[in-house]
């Protein structure tokens, strides 16, 4: 069952983003898009271990965790098309994608800005003695922001039920981690702030899932300090946009190829028999077709929507 | 009606709302046992403990972001900054996150956050403990910006803020904290966006805010003896701004002065002048005048500091000149 769920989620996210790549040149989607292709397994491995009532916060690379947590696909595609039927009625685009009804609390185009929000959410839940947990996804670049340390300190000080997931894909746009941090050991920094921290050296979705299950159970029971899991992963596409960027000179196609040869989607798919795989793929393709058609034929927001929801 | 200080009035308002709504909790530095640098939470720790009076580490961006996340759950954080100058350390969280969250989520996430702190010049604290900056906050869509001048308004507006689902920046002029005034008994709330006509008059309209309301009233006494009748209007909230009440007054007097301690460029006076010029041009008998604090960082040296801000004398003089035009 785990294999099927993983495959369905991974395939769905990959294919949604491939459709975005295919349709982007038509200019029907004008939102900047930061694609997760290649690193979807982090979102899927973590979110599969969560309950629907748990919540996730994230980054502008928002599509994978949004879908993995159960965010509405039709509402997402319509949002990217800027339509009135989008999850934020066209006001958010890709970089502010949120679906609170499904525990996706939001993305932000400002690096590290959702980390303190996730800590605040966890604090409020703990005050109400709810047994939910909060997960916050962020990149390696966010660990250079001051507010990252402020947030870790507060979470540890109050023993909050929060799991920090660092998607370390080695690059902040084009700058490698080694050019940005004198001591690039993110786990040690988290430990210094009073968290438990562990690193996954390979993108092993089964291992990530198992570790997340264990940590989430402990967090829910209030038996552990907050936890940080650093997941080494790799972004196949350019930082922003649908294309590739190996010509930019900051990394090589060969470096990427090594990760592509270990594609988690293929690994998980190979554990299923062909008929099961095909059945999953067909149902996902149909869902995606339907979502894009829905978005395309939805209306744009009316002009009088401009001032709605500015205030409660 | 009882006589309370500004500080006692806001404390009473906060205490009443915390008793009413268990979702309210306070975040800040020294707001627990210590009771707040300006007694903003005095006595509340004994009632509600550290669960609802949360002393924070010295990390403004962190705890403002935290308030944002807590508000998403339906909690009502009150962030107490001591001096609102420290809010600038969290400006990005306020402007980019809190102010925009309701809009960007098409209303699905509410932001019932009260951010409060002292403003104002006049206690030799130099530039990092004297900032006001409400024109900056007023510039941002999605925020409510409250700047009360009396104990009754302070209490009523604070309670209104704690019943609102919008983020409210609540700015308390340090030189007003110990001033006294009558505060109504029983439940008392003041709506946002309703200016107060503090004194009626027919010759000149003065729009004043926070401490300059008091200075303007003192100026009016002096001018009354000279036969000048001055109307003083206190907008009480910068956002929303009650332009209607100002326009109605200008219709009567034909003359408008905006007296404001904060900086003139791109400021509150500029905004009011632009709106009155747009909507009330035909009612004006003279150019609109502004009297502001000097456009410098607040200096420490007491004579220099005093020279920076409008006072009752400079306001009276500005009114005289405007009446003569």
How would you sum up this structure in a few lines?
The complex is a heterodimer of chains A (312) and B (325). Chain A is built from 11 helices and 8 strands. Chain A has 312 residues and is an alpha/beta fold.
Can you characterise this structure?
The complex is a heterodimer of chains A (312) and B (325). Chain A has eleven helices and eight strands. Chain A is of the alpha/beta class. Chain A has a six-stranded parallel sheet, sandwiched between helices. In chain A, strands 5-6 form a two-stranded antiparallel sheet. By secondary structure, chain B is an alpha/beta fold. Chain B has two domains: 2-183, Thiamin diphosphate (ThDP)-binding fold, Pyr/PP domains (Rossmann fold); 196-324, Rossmann fold. In chain B, 39% of the residues lie in helices and 21% in strands. In chain B, the strands form three sheets. In chain B, strands 3-2-4-5-7-6-12 form a seven-stranded mixed sheet, with helices on both faces. In chain B, strand 2 (24-28), helix 2 and strand 3 (53-55) form a beta-alpha-beta unit. The longest helix of chain B is centred in the first third of the chain and has 15 residues, at 6-20. The A-B interface holds A 57, 87-89, 91-92, 96, 98, 100-101, 105-106, 108, 110, 113-125, 127-128, 146-147, 150-151, 153-154, 157, 308-312 and B 25, 51, 54, 56-57, 59, 61-75, 77, 92-93, 96-97, 101-112, 141-142, 144, 164-166.
Secondary structure layout:
The complex is a heterodimer of chains A (312) and B (325).
Chain A: H1 2-23, H2 40-47, E1 55-57, H3 63-68, H4 73-80, E2 104-106, H5 114-127, E3 134-139, H6 146-157, E4 162-168, E5 171-172, E6 175-176, H7 186-192, E7 196-200, H8 205-220, E8 227-232, H9 253-261, H10 264-269, H11 274-297
Parallel strand pairs in A: 1-2, 1-3, 3-4, 4-8, 7-8
Antiparallel strand pairs in A: 5-6
Helix pairs in contact in A: 1-2, 1-11, 2-8, 4-11, 5-6
Chain B: E1 2-5, H1 6-20, E2 24-28, H2 44-52, E3 53-55, H3 60-72, E4 76-83, H4 91-104, E5 114-119, H5 134-138, E6 144-146, H6 151-161, E7 168-173, E8 180-183, E9 196-199, E10 204-208, H7 211-225, E11 230-234, E12 237-239, H8 243-253, E13 256-263, H9 268-280, E14 289-293, H10 302-308, H11 312-324
Parallel strand pairs in B: 2-3, 2-4, 4-5, 5-7, 6-7, 10-11, 10-13, 13-14
Antiparallel strand pairs in B: 1-8, 6-12, 9-11
Helix pairs in contact in B: 1-6, 3-4, 7-11, 8-9
């Amino acid at each position: 069952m785990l294999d099927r769920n993983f495959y369905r989620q991974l395939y769905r996210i990959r294919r949604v983003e491939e459709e975005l790549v295919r349709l982007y040149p038509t200019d029907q989607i004008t939102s900047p898009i930061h694609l997760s292709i290649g690193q979807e397994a982090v979102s899927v491995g973590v979110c599969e271990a969560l309950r629907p009532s748990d919540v996730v916060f994230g980054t502008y690379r928002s599509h994978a965790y949004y879908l993995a947590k159960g965010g509405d696909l039709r509402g997402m595609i319509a949002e990217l098309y800027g339509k009135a039927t989008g999850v934020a009625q066209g006001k958010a685009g890709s970089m502010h994608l949120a679906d609170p009804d499904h525990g996706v609390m939001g993305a932000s185009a400002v690096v590290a800005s959702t980390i303190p929000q996730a800590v605040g959410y966890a604090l409020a839940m703990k005050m109400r003695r709810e047994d939910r947990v909060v997960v916050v996804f962020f990149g390696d670049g966010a660990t250079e922001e001051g507010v990252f340390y402020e947030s870790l300190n507060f979470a540890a000080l109050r023993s909050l039920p929060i799991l920090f997931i660092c998607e370390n894909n080695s690059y902040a746009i084009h700058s490698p981690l080694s050019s940005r941090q004198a001591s690039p050991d993110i786990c040690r920094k988290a430990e210094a702030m009073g968290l438990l921290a562990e690193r996954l050296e390979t993108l092993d979705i089964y291992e990530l899932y198992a570790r997340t299950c264990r940590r989430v159970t402990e967090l829910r029971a209030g038996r552990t300090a907050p936890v940080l899991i650093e997941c080494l992963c790799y972004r196949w596409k350019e930082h922003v946009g649908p294309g590739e960027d190996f010509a930019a000179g900051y990394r090589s196609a060969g470096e990427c190829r090594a990760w592509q040869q270990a594609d988690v989607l293929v690994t998980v798919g190979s554990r299923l028999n062909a008929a099961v795989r095909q059945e999953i793929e067909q149902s996902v393709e149909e869902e995606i077709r339907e979502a894009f058609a829905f978005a395309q034929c939805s209306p744009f927001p009316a002009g009088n929507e401009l001032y709605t929801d500015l205030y409660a | 009606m009882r006589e309370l200080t500004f500080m006692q009035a806001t404390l009473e308002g906060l205490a009443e709302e915390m008793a009413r709504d268990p979702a309210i909790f306070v975040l800040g530095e020294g707001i627990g046992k210590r009771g707040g640098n300006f007694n903003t939470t005095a006595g509340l720790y004994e009632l509600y403990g550290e669960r609802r009076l949360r002393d924070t580490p010295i990390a403004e961006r962190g705890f403002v972001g935290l308030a944002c996340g807590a508000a998403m759950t339906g909690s009502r954080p009150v962030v107490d900054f001591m001096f609102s100058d420290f809010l600038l350390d969290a400006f990005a969280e306020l402007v980019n996150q809190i102010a925009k969250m309701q809009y960007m989520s098409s209303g699905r996430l509410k932001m019932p956050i009260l951010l409060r702190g002292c403003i104002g010049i006049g206690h030799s604290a130099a530039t990092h403990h004297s900032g006001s900056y409400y024109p900056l906050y007023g510039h941002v869509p999605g925020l409510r910006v409250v700047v009360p001048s009396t104990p009754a308004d302070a209490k009523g507006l604070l309670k209104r803020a704690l019943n609102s689902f919008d983020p409210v920046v609540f700015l308390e002029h340090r030189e007003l904290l110990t001033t006294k005034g009558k505060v109504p008994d029983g439940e008392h709330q003041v709506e946002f966006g309703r200016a107060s006509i503090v004194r009626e008059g027919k010759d000149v309209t003065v729009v004043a805010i926070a401490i300059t309301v008091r200075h303007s009233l003192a100026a009016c006494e002096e001018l009354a003896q000279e036969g000048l009748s001055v109307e003083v209007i206190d907008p009480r909230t910068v956002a929303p701004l009650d332009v209607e009440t100002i326009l109605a007054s200008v219709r009567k007097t034909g003359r408008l002065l905006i007296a404001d301690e904060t900086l003139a460029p791109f400021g509150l006076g500029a905004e009011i002048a632009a709106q009155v010029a747009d909507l009330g041009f035909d009612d004006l008998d003279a150019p609109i005048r502004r009297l502001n604090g000097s456009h410098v960082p607040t200096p420490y040296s007491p004579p220099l500091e005093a020279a920076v801000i409008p006072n009752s004398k400079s306001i009276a003089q500005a009114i005289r000149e405007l009446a003569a035009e």
